[in-house]
Specification:
With 179 residues, the chain is α/β, with parallel strands linked by helices. The chain contains six helices and six strands. The strands form two sheets. Strands 1-3-2 form a three-stranded mixed sheet.
């Protein structure tokens, strides 16, 4: 890879160099607070075979036939379908959500703030219901545990036994987040 195909992003909270192949085929390297540009490019060289493998996997994937670009209509549909489902699942698990927003996120299926706001990716409207519910339950469990500790995963597994099936679908379709 040439340096032009590599984007460096410094993150003061990062503890190590992190690589991500982006939708356009470029490589984004997250550089830790005390890291250097030189070491970031060395890191990119070391992981070259992994980067090429990721590019090939991405190229082999094709979006589902009904995977449209975001429009006001799709965003409205996502709001109509996902927001009430968050309320239902929150009630089922005895949790209170302050706010639900539907966004055009490029790297996440969902997120949860400490204040009780949940954001969901509009593309979830194209996911199977089991996948939608898993993402929502995952974010709801962050209201009880704001990390990905073993305790958090125990909460998720207790609330959603079909997690492996949903995670497999999400893994297979992750490339379409940035499309």
């Amino acid at each position: 890879m040439t340096q032009g195909e590599i984007k460096l992003v410094r993150n003061a909270r990062a503890r190590r160099y992190i690589a991500r192949v982006l939708g356009d085929g470029s490589l984004r390297i997250t550089v830790p607070r005390l890291g250097s540009q030189l070491e970031a490019f060395r890191f990119a060289e070391r992981i070259g075979p992994w980067v090429e493998e990721q590019k090939q996997k991405r190229a082999a994937r094709t979006p589902p036939a009904d995977w449209p670009a975001p429009t006001a209509a799709w965003l409205a549909r996502a709001r109509r379908e996902l927001v009430p489902r968050v309320g239902e699942l929150a009630h089922q698990h005895g949790l209170r959500v302050l706010r639900v927003s539907i966004r055009r996120q490029r790297s996440r299926w969902g997120s949860c703030s400490r204040r009780g706001s949940i954001s969901l990716n509009w593309r979830l409207v194209h996911a199977p219901p089991v996948v939608r519910d898993y993402v929502i339950v995952h974010e709801l469990m962050h209201l009880r545990e704001m990390n990905h500790s073993p305790r958090f995963w125990s909460l998720v597994d207790a609330a959603f036994p079909a997690r492996p099936l949903a995670e497999q679908w999400l893994k297979e379709h992750a490339a379409f987040l940035s499309s």
